[in-house]
Amino acid sequence: MRFNEPVVLGIESSCDETGVGIVRGNKLLANAVSSSMDEHVRFGGVIPEIAARAHLEAFVPTLQSALDTAELALDDIDAIAVTSGPGLAGALMVGVSAAKALALATGKPLYGINHLVAHVGVGVLEGTVLPPTFGALLVSGGHTEILKVTSLTNDVQLLGSTIDDAAGEAYDKTARLLGLGYPGGPAIDKAAKDGNRKAFRFPRGLSLPKFVGSAANPGKHRNNFSFSGLKTAVARCVEHFEANGEEVPVADIAASFQEAVVDVITSKAVRAMQEQGLKTLLLGGGVAANTRLRELLAARCTSAGIELVVPPFSLCTDNGGMVAALGAQLVADGVAPSGLDFATDSSQPVTQITLR
Amino acid sequence: MSNYLAIDTSANASVALVDETTGLLVDKRVSSKGNDQTETLSAYVKELLDTHGQKGQDLAGIIVGVGPGPFTGLRVGLVAARTFGFVWQVPVHGVMSLHALAEQVLESSDVPAEFVVASDARRKEVYWARYDNSGTMVGGPHVSAASALPAMPVFGVGAGIYAEQLEEAGAKPMPESFEWIADAGFLARRALSDLAGGKDLSDTSPQYLRESDAQIPAFMKQAKA
Ligand SMILES: [Zn+2]
C-alpha cells in the first residue's frame, strides 16, 4: 500500500444521503451521492425507515458511479472506510453491512469511522492546509457541535453540543410552522432575506449567566446549545398573530429566528476558540450553506483574529468523500483497521475516531 | 464443481454453503440472536469460504432471502448479498424467506395436504403464507395477527409464539417447529429447485409487506404551498 497517498473508498449512510467517495491521499477523485431528501419532503423531516429503504436501493449504483468517475477498479483501492456512527441506527447498518461485504469480497482493510470527525477530515482535501491544532463548528440537520482537533486521527475533543434539537432540526420545525416547506434551512434563509432580523427578539438558548459562568469558572453549558425554547417562542409568536386574525409576518419571523440561531452559534463558537487559544476554525455540516451564518461567523472570526475555513458546500453536506478523506488520514498514520466484527454506534462519541 | 452461498437475515443471520450439483448442505453458520446481523454476517461468510477453500469469484451464485422479516436485519443481508454479487461478478438470486420454512416442513415424514408457515413479525403479528404438500405457495405472503390464520397446521417460530391464539382460532400449531426460523440451507434448496425449473429469481427486492409507518404531520397538510 502507498501509505503516503493511499487510495481510500469511503461510504456514508448515517442519514438520508447514500454517499460513496474515493480519494488518493488528499485528492478527491469521486464523490457520488444519492439523496432520498425528496421522499421526506411531505413529512417535513427525515423518516428513518424511508431513508434506510433508499440506502439499500442506492448503494450498488452509487458505488458503481464513484468507481466510474474515478476511473478506478476495486483492485486499485487500498482501504475502505465507512461511517459507523453517530447517526440513524437502521440507516447506518445498511452502509456498514455493505462496507463489510465490500471489504471481505475485495480483501481490503476496513475502517469504521466517526461521522463528525469525517466532517472535519474533509477539510484536508483540495490543498487546504490545516494547523496542527484547530477548532471545528459542525452545524447540520443532525448535529450542532464545537470540536477541538489536536490530531484528526487520534485526538478530537467535544467542547460543546446541543442538548436538545440540532440547529438544522430547529430550522425544519420552524419552516413547518411558517409553512415554508422542507428542508427548512434554505427555505428560511430565502424568506429571511426580505425580513427584518430585529423585528422580534427570540431567545438565545443557554445564554444566561447561570449556564455560561465565566472563563475562569465556566458554567455547565458554557459551550452548549439549546433550540427547543426558541422553537416554542416562534410558535407562540405565530399563534399570537393568528389569534388576532392578523397576517403572520413570515419574513420578519424567519429573519429573527435565523438571527437568534446564528447569533448564539457564532458567539459561542468564537468564544470557545478564544478560550482554547485556537486560531483556526473549520465550518462543516449542511447548514454551512446558510448565508447569514457564514456572514456573521466570518465577521466575528475576523474581529477575533481567527482564520475561518469553509470547505466547498458539496463537501459540507453528508458525503462519502469526507469518509474517504478521514480514512486516508488514518491509513497514512498507520492506524489499525477495525476488522469485520464491529457494530454500528448511533451515538458514537467524537473521541472514538475509529472503531477497533 | 462449486458451491452456492446462501444468506438469510429475515430472522437471525443464517449463512450456508450448498453444493451446486447435489444441492446438499456443505456447511452453515447461524446466530443465536435476532439483532446482530450487522456484526456477524460477514464474519460467517468469511469463515465458510475460508474453511472450505471456496473463492468468492468461483461461487455458482448467491442466494438471498428477501423476507418478509423485520426490516433492519433484512436489509443487512440484502445489501451484503448484492455487494458480494457486484464484486465477485456472480448472479444473485432472491427467494422469499418463508419458502425456507416450507422446505423444512417438506422434510417431515407426513406432510399435511395444506399447511401454513409463520415467522415473527413483531408488533403482535406474524408473517405467513399457505402451501400445499408439494411445497407450492397457494396463498400469501401476508402479515397479520395470528388469530387471522386459516384453520390448518401452522409451522415455524410464529406458531410457537402464538400457539394459544392459533388454537383458539381453530388452527393447529405444530410443536416440533416452534423454534424454526428461516434457514439459509433450506432457502438454497428452494432456490435450486426453482432455478432447475427455469424460474427467474433475479429480483432481490425486499418483501416489506408493511409501509414505512411515516405519517404526514397535520401541520404539513395545512401548510401553504
Ligand atoms: Zn453530517
TrEMBL record, chain A:
Cofactor note: Binds 1 Fe(2+) ion per subunit.
EC number: 2.3.1.234
Pfam families: TsaD
Signal sequence extent: none
InterPro entries: ATPase_NBD, Gcp-like_dom, KAE1/TsaD, TsaD
Record keywords, A-Z: Acyltransferase, Cytoplasm, Iron, Metal-binding, Transferase, tRNA processing
Localization (cell): Cytoplasm
Function: Required for the formation of a threonylcarbamoyl group on adenosine at position 37 (t(6)A37) in tRNAs that read codons beginning with adenine. Is involved in the transfer of the threonylcarbamoyl moiety of threonylcarbamoyl-AMP (TC-AMP) to the N6 group of A37, together with TsaE and TsaB. TsaD likely plays a direct catalytic role in this reaction.
Protein name: tRNA N6-adenosine threonylcarbamoyltransferase
UniProtKB/TrEMBL annotation, chain B:
Gene3D superfamilies, alphabetized: 3.30.420.40
Domain Gcp-like per the UniProt entry, residue ranges: 38-141
InterPro entries: ATPase_NBD, Gcp-like_dom, T6A_TsaB
Database matches in Pfam families: TsaD
SUPFAM superfamilies documented for this protein: Actin-like ATPase domain (SSF53067)
NCBIfam families from the UniProt entry: T6A_YeaZ
Record's protein name: tRNA (Adenosine(37)-N6)-threonylcarbamoyltransferase complex dimerization subunit type 1 TsaB
